Amino acid sequence: MAAADQESHVSAVRPRSYQDESYLQGFLGTVGDLQKAGVLQDVVLEVEGRRFACHRLVLSAASPYFRAMFTSDMAESRQKTVDLQGLDAGMFREILSYIYSGTLHVTLDKVQPLYQAADLLQLDYVRDTCSSYMAMNVEHSTCVDLYKFADVFSVDSVRKACLECINRNFVEVASSEEFCSLGVNQLTEIISHDELDVKEETTVWEAVVRWVQHSREDRLHHLPTILSHIRFNLLTPYNMVAILDHPLIREDPGRSAIRNVVKEASNVNMNRRIGMDTLEMALIFSESTKEMLWMNPGEGKYIRCQYNISAVAGTVTSDNDIYVLSEESSKKHALFKYNHVKNSWERKSSVRRLDPTDISIPTDYLMEIDGQLFYLTVLDPNVVLKKYNQHTNKWHSCSTPQHDGWLEWTVAVSCNQYIYLFTPIEIHCYDPRENHWYKKTQSDYSERSYYTDNAAAIGTEIFCTDSDLDKTWVYDTEADSWHEFPGWLKADIGIDYITLFVIQNTLHAVADGWMEGTSAESRKVQRVFVYDRSERVWRELSFLPNGRWYMNDPMFPVARMYLPYLNTQGAATGSANDV
């Protein structure tokens, strides 16, 4: 090869960098092995009298706190033993385990001291992981404790999640012992929120009374400051008099000052709490559009909203969180969660559905048990059940029932902490605690199987109807027995489908059918009925607003809706006749 060609070839070969992944993964493991073997350790850290032999280099690489300690002119950089103050020995052991292994173990009982240790040692990953873990575990029983911690350490994400939980569950939270442990600034911040879910302002006053009386001598002097956050303009004159005559105010030496605060506050036009304008409403899906209808037929309230999803099933949790499954593709459904404040849906995950056949499509159910979501889908001869993990945002397969076939017509409903699946010949019951299905042994079920065209639960009872709303049977899940309710006598419509739902603990039904004696083009109607339990008859309430609403095997989620939020973003409201 000529010299010029050789030079050209050499210049064309560019240098490259190579990364040894196995070295990177093995390095930390080797460092951990050295620590376990007690080899090459050059410093001892003493925490609450316990001694931990370590490597300065490893500590300095992991933590800016140790880097500053060992690379500066600080006295600790020259000491063989360093006494660390302000740390819990058990938590420091967890921190060291993370530093030498890269694995962090977090539990609810140690997440707060673990966060404190990470905050002091400037370990961002540990601190961020702890804050995420706390935010994921905000519940009724933990929200006050986590809120106090997040307030002290300014963990904004946790603090926000806690306040949302407290606002949403204020009545329950305010009656807890933990509520009385709040500081005065924390209390006033909570009761100053518009988002407080209370029906009456007296609920806020009663919470304040409990808080003050928990430590009366220490807290009574805070009362004038606290009372300025109570919305006296929302109270009735009777309630105002009752508050001013309360022993807490009547017997206080500074009651004249308190009365002035109450008088001034009552003249200020403060906003209504969001919970004062709530209404239980059922959500109905559209057959062909991305429109949904929120309705309370008994109140004559109907609100139509356009959303960018096509829902097929839905449910509501005990925390009033609304979830729906929406068609995403022929093979998958998407799970969406409703945002009350924004009146919008937020996509959470996707779940695989059963493949449709040439003649039928799966029947889908979304149900909630004890705060957990379950997706049940049925397509003869298959039954699939999956559980959703909200923390990991993943679905996990559950056990499936051993059935005797004939799944063309099924009804599923959650009741009394179980899932019940009715087929034309069997009743299957799923226990989520044991992940196990078993058959109910009702001997007379075959006589009633015709009537399980639709079902809804109230308490421990499951109400079932036939396809014509002629009969209503009730299954008592605790007694494992049936009894019949008289049905509705046929009127001037024929019925194709029935959908049952429960609003304000009262059974309702929407009948999809046709007017007799009318032309094919104009005969379709959708009527709402309510079951009068005292008279034991179905009574007609109204027609649904114009539109084709989905009635074929749906499940109408029923939730408490915050009307000021729901009436935003172009929603159409009104009665059934003018919506």
Task: Describe the model.
With 579 residues, the chain is α+β, with helices and mostly antiparallel strands. The protein is built from 19 helices and 28 strands. A five-stranded antiparallel beta sheet has the order 27-4-5-6-28. A four-stranded antiparallel beta sheet has the order 7-8-9-10, with no helix packed on it. A four-stranded antiparallel beta sheet has the order 11-12-13-14, with no helix packed on it. The chain is globular. The mean pLDDT is 84.
| Overall number of structural domains | 3
The CATH homologous superfamily of the largest domain: Kelch-type beta propeller
Highest CATH level, the class of the largest domain: Mainly Beta
Overall morphology: globular
The parts where pLDDT drops under 50 for at least 5 residues are none
Q: How much strand content do the residues show?
A: 25-35%
Mean pLDDT: 84
- Radius of gyration, in angstroms, nearest whole number: 32 Å
Question: Which bin fits the share of residues in helices?
Answer: 25-40%
Give a short overview.
This protein is an alpha+beta fold and 579 residues long.
For the structure shown, list the relevant keywords:
single chain; 579 residues; alpha+beta; Potassium Channel Kv1.1, Chain A; Serine Threonine Protein Phosphatase 5, Tetratricopeptide repeat; Neuraminidase; 3 domains; five-stranded antiparallel β-sheet; four-stranded antiparallel β-sheet; 19 helices; globular
